[in-house]
Every structure is written in structure tokens, then in C-alpha cells.
Specification:
single chain, alpha/beta, 5 strands, globular
Length: 107
């Protein structure tokens, strides 16, 4: 499945990321969010439609969080079970400026 990144029309700081983030497209995620990251402020990524992420996807999240440092947080919202498990294994909630918000938690 191809990577899809869509801005929420009601919240310009919220994006829905769907499909797969892997070695073939992780740079696209970083590039798509470069402008909003430069603006600063919290950035929300709805991961409910993300079916797969490999180590390069994690690398993309690290790049985004580092670029936001001191100017905002990267909130990863509603990851599915596969992505949630990966975020748990790599301890994404311990990355600088990253907050993982699972279903049932407040975004």
C-alpha cells in the first residue's frame, strides 16, 4: 500500500498518515511535513490508517521530532496494533518532543 499524507481541513497542524512508511518513501514523509515543522508548534500525526512502518519510518519520526525541538511536540495519535507495537519496542515515547497517544487517550 502506498503512503498517503493528508492535512486535516479543520486543523492545519494535524495530518492523517496512511498506508506504509518504509525505505522507499520515508523521505516523502519528512518532506511533506517540512513546512509545518518549520512553522513550529505541536504537530499531530493521526496514524490510525498506517498499516506498516519500518526502521526508516522511525528515522523519519526522529528527524521530525529533532527539527521541532524547543518549538513544539510531535504527537503520534491512534497507531494501529502493528505500528503501536513498533513504537513500543523502540520506546518512541522516550524520543525528544514525541508523545504517543493511543485510542482512548486524549489527543
Amino acid at each position: 500500500m502506498e503512503l498517503s499524507i493528508e492535512r486535516d481541513p479543520q486543523d492545519p497542524r494535524r495530518f492523517r498518515v496512511a498506508g506504509e512508511v518504509d525505505i522507499s518513501n520515508h523521505e516523502r514523509l519528512v518532506e511533506a511535513l517540512a513546512g509545518p515543522v518549520e512553522e513550529g508548534g505541536d504537530l499531530v500525526l493521526d496514524l490510525s490508517g498506517l498499516e506498516f512502518m519500518d526502521s526508516q519510518g522511525i528515522r523519519a519520526l526522529l528527524i521530525l521530532s529533532q527539527r521541532l525541538e524547543g518549538r513544539g511536540r510531535l504527537k503520534l495519535v491512534s497507531p494501529g496494533s502493528v505500528v503501536s507495537r513498533l513504537l513500543e519496542v523502540v520506546r518512541a515515547d522516550a524520543f525528544p518532543n514525541v508523545e504517543v497517544v493511543r485510542d482512548g487517550d486524549e489527543a
